[in-house]
Design goal:
The complex is a heterodimer of chains A (337) and B (253). Chain A has 337 residues and is mainly α. In chain A, 72% of the residues lie in helices and 1% in strands. Chain A has one domain. Chain B is an alpha/beta fold and 253 residues long. Chain B is globular, with a radius of gyration of 18 Å. Classes of the chains: A mainly alpha (337), B alpha/beta (253). At the A-B interface, helix 10 of A face helix 3 and helix 4 of B.
């Protein structure tokens, strides 16, 4: 059991367990507000996972809303054309943005960090324009409404409880993909994050791993887009504004970029808080900006990284009362290696 | 030294040949029509005053900076313009002047990454076993590399290049920042590499004693040109070299 946990990673396993627990939401309550917030949180977690994969290589991607849109619209168009099997739709929502990300990544990931950030932002803007200007395919400013409910072995998933279960299923898939990717390529991603020049000079084809990450992150975002379309019952350009990319980045960074638990914790707290203060929602982007600045200056590891730091310190102090002050600052989570 | 080694190692493409290379940054010319050959299995020192273009030379050889003109050959193969990871896989590997490790990774993870990225295989641990002992790194394999003292970080950086089992190893000021008593560690690594993998080694260094100890052949760069070349004692006593370089900075060492 211990070896099994060590192989998967403690944080990764915790995320998978949390995703499985998400299936219980419709059975816990019938409160519509709770449903809505849970659904939003799950979608935010998926989107933040997409950010997290790229952050693992020190790359900030604003392209998440663009890939969400590609996944969401692809699934919506497929459903409108009679394909309603939920698994097929998930596959489409993952594959389409991943396929778009492949040539794009191969091109833009040769750019240095800051240019990559710019290009991903522009990509989201271009996609907005595309969605508005192609009414034949995407419904233009009306979006795609009247999407038939997905089916699970023939059972319609139209009821809100089932929509939640669908989102939980998508979340589980996104979690497994993200955990597997960041774990399997852990050494390569960390090497790129810590010292790209050295990694390359030792023979690592840095560019290839960045493209792999970008493609998978695109697919994961696409899954989030499909979940969003399922929740809203419509695919509309406004759901995928380039500005929402800032929120997803905030969730990942504030939650903590050093562990896969970061995006989960960050999304949960911030989406919940945004709903709590929804009467002042217009200030949320500004607040998120302040939060990012605070985290970058005061708590680089975000919520999870900082908690981990204090927990380790406390554990060490308990086992050896004299020690604990010389502990290295928050770094990468070292789950039972 | 090399004659013995030549019998033991297949060195068909272990020679580094630099032919008429030039490097400009805009209007600034770092070097022009520079040529030299590092023979297979040999050790060569490159010295020169600050700004002579020594580190830039390594950067262009390793593909980190593009050449303005000229050719670079590894054995018979033209490797001009290839990216760093390809050159590294072909056996042309460098170390860095500043301590260069994966800071958040442990010593063990650092070495494992280097072996993995270079594809040199886990048996490489046997190759460096006695070096890890000598550097007292063996007891610190699970320490995060950033927490090591500077001298050890520097040696770990050199080991990372070494465990890729290079054919040609380029060392960029391996002794810079080391205390006098730590400098023997660099000698140890170079001798170890010569004895165990027989690679060709190019050393850029300001420490003249180290150069004298390790390099049977040196070249002196000044303003991007080869000012002199030959055995260290001979080269370091020529008038032009003393004028350009040694006379000014030997006292600093």
């Amino acid at each position: 059991m211990g070896a099994f946990v060590a192989r998967i990673g403690r944080a990764e396993l915790a995320c998978i367990v949390l995703s499985v627990l998400a299936f219980s939401v419709p059975f816990l309550t019938h409160d519509r507000l709770f449903y809505s917030i849970s659904n939003q949180i799950m979608i935010a977690v998926i989107a933040a996972f997409s950010v997290f994969i790229m952050l693992r290589m020190n790359l900030i991607s604003f392209a998440v809303p663009a890939f969400m849109a590609i996944g969401g619209y692809a699934a919506a168009i497929a459903a409108r054309n009679g394909l309603t099997d939920v698994f097929a739709l998930m596959a489409i929502a993952f594959a389409f943005p991943a396929l778009v990300a492949l040539p794009l990544g191969a091109l833009v990931l040769r750019l240095r960090g800051v240019y990559f950030v710019l290009v991903t932002y522009i990509l989201s803007e271009i996609l907005q324009l595309f969605l508005f200007e192609t009414p034949g395919l995407t419904g233009g400013s009306n979006g795609i409404a009247g999407i038939p409910a997905a089916t699970f072995f023939g059972i319609s998933l139209g009821r809100y409880e089932y929509v939640l279960l669908t989102t939980a299923g998508i979340l589980l898939l996104a979690t497994v993909i993200t955990a597997a990717t960041t774990r399997y390529y852990g050494q390569q991603f960390s090497a790129i994050e810590e010292n790209e020049v050295l990694a390359q000079s030792l023979g690592l084809v840095v560019w290839r791993y960045k493209v792999i990450g970008f493609v998978i992150a695109g697919g994961v975002a696409g899954l989030g887009g499909y979940a969003l379309v399922t929740m809203l019952l419509t695919a509309h350009p406004s759901s995928f504004s380039s500005f929402s990319g800032v929120s997803y980045i905030t969730y990942a960074i504030v939650g903590g970029r050093t562990s896969i638990l970061g995006p989960v914790v960050g999304s949960t707290i911030l989406v919940w808080a945004s709903n709590l203060f929804s009467s002042q929602a217009q200030y949320s982007q500004g607040l998120f900006g302040v939060l990012i600045v605070f985290v970058i200056f005061a708590a680089k590891g975000g919520i999870v990284g900082t908690a981990e730091y204090w927990l380790k310190r406390w554990l060490r102090k308990r086992s050896d009362p004299g020690a604990g002050d010389d502990l290295a600052p928050v770094g990468r989570s070292k789950d039972a290696a | 030294m090399t004659a013995v080694a030549e019998d033991r190692f297949p060195r068909a493409d272990w020679e580094l040949r630099i032919e008429n290379i030039s490097k400009n940054f805009g209007g600034l010319q770092l070097f022009r029509d520079l040529s030299f050959v590092l023979d297979a299995g040999n050790i060569m020192g490159v010295i020169g005053p600050n700004g002579a273009g020594k580190t830039t030379l390594i950067n262009v050889i390793c593909g980190q900076l593009p050449l303005s003109s000229g050719k670079i050959y590894l054995g018979k193969r033209d490797v001009t313009g290839l990216p760093p990871h390809t050159l590294s896989r072909l056996g042309l590997v460098r170390s860095f002047q500043q301590t260069n490790t994966f800071k958040l990774a442990t010593v063990r993870e650092n070495l494992m990454r280097a072996m993995r990225f270079a594809g040199s295989g886990p048996d490489t641990w046997n190759l460096i076993d006695d070096l890890l002992d000598a550097y007292e790194l063996k007891a610190r394999l699970d320490e995060v590399s950033d927490s090591l003292p500077y001298g050890l970080q520097k040696m770990l950086g050199l080991l990372l290049a070494y465990v890729t089992k290079p054919k040609v190893l380029l060392l960029d000021e391996p002794a810079a920042g080391l205390e006098q008593r730590e400098r023997g560690n660099v000698d140890r690594l170079v001798m170890h590499a010569q004895e165990n993998i027989g690679c060709s080694i190019l050393i850029i260094e300001h420490d003249m004693e180290l150069i004298r100890r390790l390099c049977p052949h040196i070249i002196v760069l000044d303003a991007g040109n080869v000012l002199a070349a030959g055995a260290p004692d001979e080269v370091l006593s020529t008038r032009s070299v003393i004028d350009a370089y040694v006379g000014r900075s030997d006292d600093d060492d």
